[in-house]
Amino acid sequence: MCSETKHRVREDRKGADTMKNSRARNFWSAVAGTAAIEFAILSVPFAGVTTAAFETARAYWTLEAIQESATQGARCIGIHTNSCYASGTYSASSTVAHVQNVAKSWGIDVPGNAITATQSTSCGNVPGFAEIRISYPFSSVAGKLIPALNNIPLSVSSCFPNNA
């Protein structure tokens, strides 16, 4: 090889090395598309936190709805309303139906087997109370992704003095 050819090969390599270095510098200093990448990185955790906040609020709202249903059911037994008494006689099935109707007005479908109505019991070791217990299986919308969030038991009870 003549010295001129050797010299040309070195210059060609210098150009290739310079091109590699400038590509690397350009890649690391590029800012085009950074907003899209940042959005992609942050959107998944943000969606998760938002879903968790909504589902926690929905669980507390459901708990409030079934607590109010139990309270109205115990009161219905205690003051002897027609919704819980058929012809002046206590009816457990009418009471359960009344509690289900109150829950339905809140938008909650409580199955009949989740409601326990007791006409005469003790509450806090004091006799003479009507009591409603509800055990409701709460399922989260996120339960399809995280099965542990399905059928979380929400249990409430309410007592009301019997006015016999």
Task: Give the helices and strands, then pairings.
Elements: H1 3-29, H2 34-78, E1 85-86, E2 89-90, H3 92-105, E3 115-123, E4 126-138, E5 152-161
Antiparallel strand pairs: 1-2, 3-4, 4-5
Helix pairs in contact: 2-3
Write structural notes for this entry.
The longest helix has 45 residues, at 34-78. The protein is α+β, with helices and mostly antiparallel strands and 164 residues long. The chain has helices at residues 3-29, 34-78, 92-105; strands at 85-86, 89-90, 115-123, 126-138, 152-161. 20% of the residues are buried. The chain contains 3 helices and 5 strands, in the order ααββαβββ. The model has no long low-confidence stretch (mean pLDDT 86). A hairpin with a 2-residue loop joins strand 1 and strand 2 (89-90). 52% of the residues lie in helices and 22% in strands. Helix 2 (34-78) packs antiparallel against helix 3. The strands form 2 sheets. The protein has a 3-stranded antiparallel beta sheet with strand order 3-4-5.
Total strand segments:
5
**Beta-strand content:** 15-25%
How do the strands of the widest beta sheet line up side by side?
3-4-5
Which overall shape is indicated by the principal axes computed on the Cα atoms?
rod-shaped
Distance between the termini: 118 Å
> What is the N-to-C order of secondary-structure elements (H for helix, E for strand)?
HHEEHEEE
Query: What structural class should be given to the helix and strand makeup?
Result: alpha+beta
Radius of gyration: 34 Å
Largest sheet: 3 strands, antiparallel
**Helix proportion range:** 40-55%
Question: Average pLDDT across residues?
Answer: 86
Taking pLDDT < 50 over at least 5 consecutive residues as the criterion, the unreliable ranges are: none
Count of discrete alpha- or pi-helical segments spanning 4 or more residues:
3
